[in-house]
Amino acid sequence: MMTTQSNxxxxxxxxxxxxxxxxxxxxxxxxxxxxxxxxxxxxxxLDLSLWADRYxxxxxxxxxxxxxxxxxxxxQILIEGAEQLLLDHGEVQHILVGGGFDDSPIExxxxxxxxxxxGNTPELLKSARDRKAIADLAQRCGAEIPAGESxxxxxxxxxxxxxxxxPVVVKPDHGSGGFYxxxxxxxxxxxxxxxxxxxxxxxxxxxxxxxxxxxxxSVLGTGQTACAVSVNEQLIGLKELGRGYTKAYCGxxxxxxxxxxxxxxxxxxxxxxxxxxxLLGSNGFDFVxxxxxxxxxxxxxxxxxxxxxxxxxxxxxxxxxLHLDACEGNLPDEAPPHIASCARIIVYARQRCIxxxxxxxxxxxxxxxxxxxxESGDPVCTVxxxxxxxxxxxxxxxxxxxxxxxxxxxxxxxxx
Length: 416
Prior knowledge:
416 residues
């Protein structure tokens, strides 16, 4: 299932291992920080090879086919890839972690056995993902918490929905980037969910639906002190991308456009939580800000976030270097100033399609093998657009997104 690529032979230089669900942006940052890069990635997109000296991917992308998805949990198979890559290469100076491990403390601990993990320990990961303790901390630090309950059966699910009142958000008890987080608006939808979900194997959280602007804060921590480097708007569950039925992550706009009091409040809450938990390196905090400016805390991602590339495109500050400095106890004197705005949009397939060569489109990254196939809901690529203003960044990104959709075409009706 693993696919390995190599651009260079190992040499006596500073090497890092980057590992996660989509590590191309992290590999890019590490390369620009001056490291030689080993990468373990889920997707294995074409442009990963631009930044990784050697890499291994879970998916085996080929023309005229959709890559088979393994049944093994993502974190487990990524660890297996790291073991294989390090066996061939040898030791690295740092291991840098992206998405895919937030609710996998066993695999996070396995990373520490492979080499020097730069960032949070397995114990800090558990603390950051302890829902009850983190909810209490967020409230002490100035944020509200959505009303919610857990359910392990159809009966407790229906009772919880009745108590909270529709609409509600339903998500697995373990994080999944929003892909399995659904918004239930009607009794029929609630009844259907209750019938089809396997509660015994996957308990769920039912929360009130907080309506507002999705936001995130990128924070650096030394274990004692913290510095918020950016407050970002998140794009979640966009209907235009075919993701309106879930709370799937669809991208960001950086920096967030809001009243200064809102920005300051979000940054202050995230910094205080980071210091209270003793988090290390780069961490992400997710919020929803209501129309009256009230922040509702959602979760912590105690590792590099998907915003890393957009941050570098708008601040000229290398996020890997800032992360490693923070792990050594050094923070910037102030947040790097934003010199532009960046809209980052993930393009999802709206239906079964064939993906053409997207490499010539400006601002398009995470590029699949030309003529590979995608099913409805699969990510196709990512669009970055940098512009002087928030409005221009969004308009430019959507122009490219629409161009990508025009280029996608359905497979032949005979399935060939």
